[in-house]
Amino acid sequence: RTLLPSREFLCSRKGQLLLAESVLSFITFICYIASSAAAFMMAPLIEFLLALFLFFAYSSKLNEKFKGIYWPLTDFLRCVTAAIIYFAISIAAVSKYSDGASKAAGVFGFIATIVFAVDFYITFNDLVTFLKQGGSENATEAQKSEGNSVDHNIPTG
Length: 157
Fold this sequence. Notes:
Blueprint: H1 7-11, H2 13-34, H3 42-59, H4 62-65, H5 71-96, H6 100-152
Helix pairs in contact: 2-3, 2-6, 3-5, 5-6
């Protein structure tokens, strides 16, 4: 029970995206192993492991326990690089190799590209919202500290 994610997280948008990323990465990995384009199998394997790690990290609320890592930015960078890499290797697999497993890997790679792109778009919007909120709080704190420093520098005569 402790290893299984909560039902609440599985029903969330982030949980469903991470689950879809994990499944698509694993299927793409298996297709690349069976194909003549086996040189591309490392990218889906790494993305599968990263998506699986983040799936369990978010479901077990590790992101709330480890505050030193900025989780949304890490997730955003992972999704952007995954979408770019999947797009590139999918084009290569479909155009360069003629066997069915390579074509299947390319198709699943294109689907994974779309899922990763949706994830990085949503994560980017959350990131921008957070930075806007953080930026206004930092500006308010800076104004308060400037006001305090000006008060301390008033010459007394």
